[in-house]
Amino acid sequence: MGKSHMSVLMGAVLAGLTWPAWGQDSATLDRIAATATIRIGQRVSSVPFSYYSDDRRVIGYSQDIMMQIVAAVRDQLKLPALTISLAPITSQNWIPLLINGNLDMECSSTSHTVDREKKVAFSNTIFVIGTRLLTRADAGIRDFADLAQKQVVVTAGTTAERALHRFNEEHGIGMTILAVKEHDLAFQELQAGRAAAFVMDDALLYGARAEAPRPEDWIVTGTPLTREAYACTMRRDDPAFKALVDAAIARLMTSGEARALYDKWFTQPIPPNGMNLDWPISAAQAALYAAPNDRPIE
């Protein structure tokens, strides 16, 4: 990852909201208060969660949620201004960057797992997904068993990669699994014909499909290998900071604002080219908005 950061001045807070005084020490909040800077890790090709617009701004569903969290932090600390330092991350480096203190939090398209809880803390869930596959509509592939003896692409370091290897080994279907650094590179491999399918979280696959020149040429299909919860992540052992983040997310969900964000990013045209994922809300996502929680789905 490059060392360059994009710094944006946060000049507004959530109107009408007040946040409780936590009455606990927080190393993260202390550092943010001392520097008037919050350091956020963001994915740059996780459409529509966290990705670059044409002018290289980070936008998306998760980015909108993150900005609400930042506003809550600024309000809690009573800062006149809060600088946001955004750093691009990958599936391989986000955990080390959090642990070593280079980031205060990460909010993009990260799956909450019990294994990862040993390394980082997870916020309230922001999205519920399933691991499925993207393939050509005319390829005759409808489920994972149809990928026998075929090359399949997946994003390296993701829970989808682990689930795909596990399925391949347990069912002995002889897939060749190609792991690449980013989601957009994986879709490029699929479009170039070097893979029969791209396996990833269904939300990201719908995003990749929407970016294609002819979305109708591609389908998202397959019985989910796993169902998972996306959440923002932070360093462990800072309950006061996590409590603030969780409260911001819970208020966003129970107020109806999160549902409006869902409609904005998943059912309407979005930047940069007016693409539309055309993905109605699931029962699991609607239930999450009604009852926010920080539990993994395993």
TrEMBL record:
Gene3D superfamilies referenced in this protein's UniProt entry, alphabetically: Periplasmic binding protein-like II
CDD domains the record matches: PBP2_GltI_DEBP (cd13688)
Pfam families: SBP_bac_3
Cellular component terms (Gene Ontology): extracellular region; outer membrane-bounded periplasmic space
A Gene Ontology BP annotation from the UniProt entry: amino acid transport
Superkingdom to which the source organism belongs: Bacteria
Signal peptide extent: 1-23
Keyword Signal belongs to the record: yes
UniProt keyword list: Signal, Transport
Solute-binding protein family 3/N-terminal domain boundaries: 37-269
Family per record: Belongs to the bacterial solute-binding protein 3 family.
PANTHER family in UniProt: AMINO ACID ABC TRANSPORTER PERMEASE, GLUTAMATE_ASPARTATE IMPORT SOLUTE-BINDING PROTEIN
Name of this chain's protein: Transporter substrate-binding domain-containing protein
Organism of origin: Paracoccus limosus
